[in-house]
Design goal:
Layout: H1 2-27, H2 32-36, H3 47-81, H4 83-98, H5 108-126, H6 130-148, H7 160-163, H8 167-192
Length: 198
């Protein structure tokens, strides 16, 4: 059951992040040039090789960042000071590192910080980095393939100031709310499965 809830949290974590980005860019215009800065794959002519580069990048980033932020940083702080300071500190550092990227617009700050919080709570509740690594990789595949390179398609939705609160906006909103609820519930279930320590 740990694996079931861990993978459930991981997959819906990725859905939560992507839904939040869609919502952000329904409120403000999507700055495609800013997001694509440094992620140009046009020199690769094969779609297979583009997807290979995306997968390798996502796996590499997912493993490195979870081991670094949630393993080497969060876990020692957690043992000394408790879960709340550990998750907050690792999430702040996670956010700070990502603010150096060209795509780190003002609206992305709460999304990156929120992702760090969820990944930190997932690592703590699961007592393992593996669910967070899976969720991080799935999230990054979408980020690399869609938002940063456009290999998987282009985001062309207009802002709600132009369209009003339309059906796609409502779908993104309810997807975000439901996915986040599932992640929080899965983290709760994982935490309840933790052995009681004295």
């Amino acid at each position: 059951m740990r694996w079931v809830w861990g993978l459930c949290a991981a997959l819906f974590f990725a859905v939560t992040v992507h839904a939040s980005i869609i919502l952000l860019f329904r409120f403000v215009h999507f700055p495609a040039a800013t997001f694509r800065n440094g992620y140009d794959l046009s020199f690769i002519h094969s779609q297979f090789l583009k997807w290979t580069a995306i997968l390798i990048s996502a796996v590499s980033a997912g493993i490195r960042e979870e081991v670094g932020f949630r393993g080497y940083m969060q876990q020692p702080i957690e043992q000394r000071s408790g879960v709340l300071p550990a998750v907050l500190i690792s999430s702040l550092f996670f956010m700070a590192v990502h603010l150096t990227k060209a795509w780190a617009t003002l609206g992305m700050i709460p999304i990156v910080f929120g992702a760090g919080l969820l990944l930190g709570l997932l690592a703590w509740s699961a007592r393992s980095l593996l669910p967070g690594i899976v969720g991080h990789i799935v999230m990054d595949i979408g980020l690399f393939a869609y938002w940063w390179t456009g290999v998987a398609g282009e985001f062309s939705a207009r802002t709600i100031s132009q369209t009003g609160t339309d059906r796609p906006f409502l779908i993104a909103f309810f997807t975000f709310v439901i996915a986040l609820g599932i992640v929080v519930f899965a983290i709760y279930k994982l935490q309840r499965m933790r052995p009681i320590t004295t």
